[in-house]
Amino acid sequence: MFFKFILCLSLGIFAWAKEIIPTPSTPLTPSKRYSINLMTENDGYINPYIDEYYTAGNQIGFSTKEFDFSKNKAMKWSSYLGFFNKSPRVTRFGISLAQDMYTPSLKNRKLVHLHDNHPYGGYLRVNLNVYNRHKTFMELFTLSLGTTGQDSLAAQTQRLIHKWGHDPQFYGWNTQLKNEFIFELHYQLLKKVPLLKTRFFSMELMPGFNVELGNARDYFQLGSLFRAGYNLDADYGVNKVNTAFDGGMPYSDKFSIYFFVGAFGRFQPLNIFIQGNSPETRGIANLEYFVYASEIGAAMMWRSLRVAFTITDISKTFQSQPKHHQIGTLELNFAF
């Protein structure tokens, strides 16, 4: 696994360092559309007979139009929301409500005392986002404020969904992580590296990295996406609730369709959803510090709508986990 992690890092560094193919200089045109974003992640979208570990994530969000603050003295302070102040950019703000759910393996759903398995946990949060789109790269700053434990409402959500779907119930939610206020800061940098650009077909690499620090998760991630299709200039890729990179909202109304594959390596010294946050939940599982993931998916957009589906394969996140875990992500964007 360590070799694969290093391979992911090497591919990301190579793609980032690659010289950009010269293209005509075009000014940034701010998107005038606001957006509603809906996302759902679930391992059941890939295999309906599994329900375990990071089992589900859901998010609803709102994003503003893009603003050009370069000549707005009243918004001069916004120049500090980024590390590339001399590069022309447009800025978009967003807010979202997200919830994650974690459980042990399905076969252990009736166990109250867990050992060498994933602890029960939920994470409910509000994400405050700032997107800075430059000519060839995008920055994302996120402040997440939320809670774990019973206040995350993860147990109630899963019970309701499983009741509606006539799925097996999990009986150990009273042993989940304790209530804890969560504060997380996140930064992401994502770059476009064109490989081929024609009228009807284009290819590009999108290397990037992100880092997150807080009292729930600390990690550094590096990886790269490969995209191929028609009109790749419409966005920076799709979004995810809990893995890989976030591409933000589309900034073009023109029709676009593409497929993508990606690989990512992550170093995570802290993850309370595996390590626990109380005497009762600590020691149930031992954290894997190096995690890697791969993904494949497709997206299509036109005017006010974008739809995307992603399949993500995640390596073992705790040491006694028997095998990889797969999740599916469905995303819908509505612009107005």
UniProtKB/TrEMBL annotation:
Keyword Signal: yes
Signal peptide (from-to): 1-17
UniProt keyword terms in alphabetical order: Signal
InterPro entries in the record: LpxR, Put_OMP_sf
Coiled coil: none
Protein name as catalogued: Lipid A deacylase LpxR family protein
Organism: Helicobacter pylori
Lineage: Bacteria, Pseudomonadati, Campylobacterota, Epsilonproteobacteria, Campylobacterales
